[in-house]
Amino acid sequence: MFDIGFMEMLVVAVIALLVLGPERLPGAIRTVSLTVGRIKRGFSEVRSQVEREIGADEIRQQLHNERILAELEKQGLNAGSPSNQTPTASGNKPVTQPSQTGPTADEPSAEPVNEQQDTRHEQP
Questions:
Q1: Stretch 45-63: mean pLDDT
Q2: Domain range spanning residue 66?
Q3: Whether pLDDT at 89 is above 50
Q4: Which of 8, 16, 60, 104 has a Cα-to-Cα distance from 87 of 20 to 30 A?
Q5: What HEC string does the chain produce?
Q6: Which spans are transmembrane here (predicted)?
Q7: What pLDDT shows up at residue 55?
Q8: In a domain, 14, yes or no
Q9: Does the pLDDT of residue 115 top 60, yes or no?
Q10: Alpha-carbon distance values, 65 to 6, 57, 74, 91 (Å)
Q11: Do 86 and 97 form a contact (C-beta atoms < 8 A)?
Q12: Around Cβ 47, how many Cβ atoms within 10 Å?
């Protein structure tokens, strides 16, 4: 992390021994170790909380998109059903068009068949 070699650590240990003395050096090392451990735990908790929030935001966005898609599909189905009538070329009486839910065995599908499955709703 800090790229400290053995010689640098030895110099820091000798200076700490000279400054603090042999009686207070073990207590100072223990205090520094506990403080560094608390800082690491604090950072890992913050990181995990941020990751959870990001995951929750992604799930919330996906649910919102699915609701919008369902509303659009619902509007698309409703838009075709109330007015199944279209005017004729002469402008006389409108001709009623049958609503078709899907292709029959005799008629080919108007949309090309997609060989791939829709994977939008699968959870990773």
A1: 87
A2: 6-82
A3: no
A4: 104
A5: CCCCCHHHHHHHHHHHHHHHHHHHHHHHHHHHHHHHHHHHHHHHHHHHHHHHHHHHHHHHHHHHHHHHHHHHHHHHHHHHCCCCEECCCCCCCCEECCCCCCCCCCCCCCCCCCCCCCCCCCCC
A6: none
A7: 84
A8: yes
A9: no
A10: 56, 12, 14, 41
A11: yes
A12: 10
The size of the chain, in residues, is 124
* Domains: count for the chain: 1
* Structural domain includes residue 102: no
- Segment 19-46, tens digit of pLDDT: 999 999 999 999 999 999 999 999 999 9
Residue 85 β-bridge partners:
96
Asked, for residue 110, whether it belongs to a domain, the answer is no
On whether the CB atoms of residues 95 and 88 are closer than 8 A, the answer is yes
When comparing pLDDT for 120 and 23, which is higher? 23
Burial of 16 (0-12, 13-18, 19+ CB in 10 A): middle
CB 96 within 8 A of CB 84: yes
Evaluate whether residue 116 is within a structural domain.
Answer: no
* Residue 106 backbone zone (phi > 0: left; psi -120 to 50: alpha; other: beta): alpha
